[in-house]
Amino acid sequence: MRPLLLGGARLLDGSVVDVTIKDGLVVDAGSHDAATWETGADVDVEDLDGYLLLPAPVEPHTHLDKALTGERVTPTYDGLTGAARTWQQQAVTVSRDDVLRRGRDTLRELLWSGATAVRTHVNRSCGEDPLLALRALVELRESVADVMSLQVVYLSSKASSPEELRSAVSAGADLLGGAPHTAADPAAAQAAVLVVAGQTGVDVDLHTDEELDPAARALAALVGQVLSSGFVGRVTASHCVSLGTQTPTERADTIAGMSSAGIGVVALPSTNLYLQGRALPGSSSPRGIAPLRELLDAGILVAGGADNIRDPFLPVGRPVRDGVAAGDRWSSHRRGGVRRGQRDGPSDHGAASGGAGGGLARRPPGDTSNEPDGRDRASTSRPPRHLRRTGRRAQHRAT
């Protein structure tokens, strides 16, 4: 394989550089100088002509065990509870091969959109083996390791015991999670997850307060539990919908505690806006999304995720990176949008699977994506493999 020079690439800081890829790695991002470009036997040149070159995005929250099952069910249109009930009816038919097939197809879509690191949650399976879907996704993780980093979060349920959670970690779960707000005692449910996670040395990613009721305060309880227990792992609170419906004082107190505890947030606007508030009349429903402006202003690590992909919880759509970023932007009234997660390495997802990591030094070429310079043209973004040459100018192939 001959070295490849990506000439005239614009980075996030506005600088224009020439990027050299050699032996499958980005080895240099030097100053832009078109006069030094030499095509021939030793190097191929792609003129990016000011295209924005980005580190590959991270998809911080999805559900591969549920993905692509939307066509099998009839949507109930009665919110999160109805979607969960529909999934439970479908879950009894799920097999290992089914999870592998749909998971692999979904990862292909994510990879096409540029993501090279993904975090998936997986439910407790029905039947004799509660870890069936988990084992399938661990198998899938190993099979795609050469092109993608996949983290698997095992979701505890009302039926899960501490022994089951420990078994999940032994079976290959990277993190422990759950939906404590659905339990009779949310604080006790998430405390149980923290205990086992501490014992087994894994991080935690919890579905937290996925409802509009301002009285839902599992997140505030989580802050106290992390601080009082001395838990040393990373803690992510996904969804955090009710935080946006609470009073400014309540929000400020909880967010200050999150900062002290180092808790990150994954916002999931597509699913939350689709499911939340369906029982409320007319247009009186609050936005089903965490208060991102306040979280970011407080220095909380925030990422935006796709969540459900064509399943009973969100029966339409596809995991397009720029669409999620745009959704975070318009749904939270953020200027310039929410910065998507950027990957420094397989384990550097950050507390919320995102952050301001980056740089181009010695990273695989698949860990970059490029798009035309311009705020409103991000939807044309493609990974470098979608480029074709016309002379020395890089153009995007229609796909």
Task: Give an account of the 3D structure.
The relative contact order is 0.16. The protein is of the alpha/beta class and 399 residues long. Helices cover 29% and strands 21% of the residues. The strands form 4 sheets. It has an 8-stranded parallel beta sheet. Strands 3-2-1-4 form a 4-stranded mixed beta sheet, with no helix packed on it. Helix 2 packs across helix 3 (132-143) and helix 5 runs parallel beside helix 6 (218-229). The chain has helices at 79-91, 96-112, 132-143, 162-170, 186-200, 218-229, 248-261, 269-275, 292-297, 321-332; strands spanning 4-10, 16-22, 25-31, 44-47, 52-55, 58-62, 117-122, 149-156, 175-178, 203-208, 235-239, 263-267, 302-304, 368-371, 387-390, 393-396. The longest helix is centred in the first third of the chain and has 17 residues, at 96-112. It has 2 domains: 4-50 and 364-396; 58-332, Metal-dependent hydrolases (TIM Barrel, Alpha-Beta Barrel), CATH 3.20.20. It contains 10 helices and 16 strands. The model is unreliable at 337-366 and 370-399 (pLDDT under 50). The protein is globular.
Provide a brief overview of the structure.
Helix content is 29%, strand content 21%. The chain has 399 residues and is an alpha/beta fold. α2 (96-112) crosses α3, α4 (162-170) packs across α5 (186-200) and α6 runs parallel beside α7 (248-261).
Question: What are the main properties of this structure?
Answer:
399 residues; alpha/beta; TIM Barrel; 2 domains; eight-stranded parallel sheet; four-stranded mixed sheet; 10 helices; 16 strands; disordered C terminus
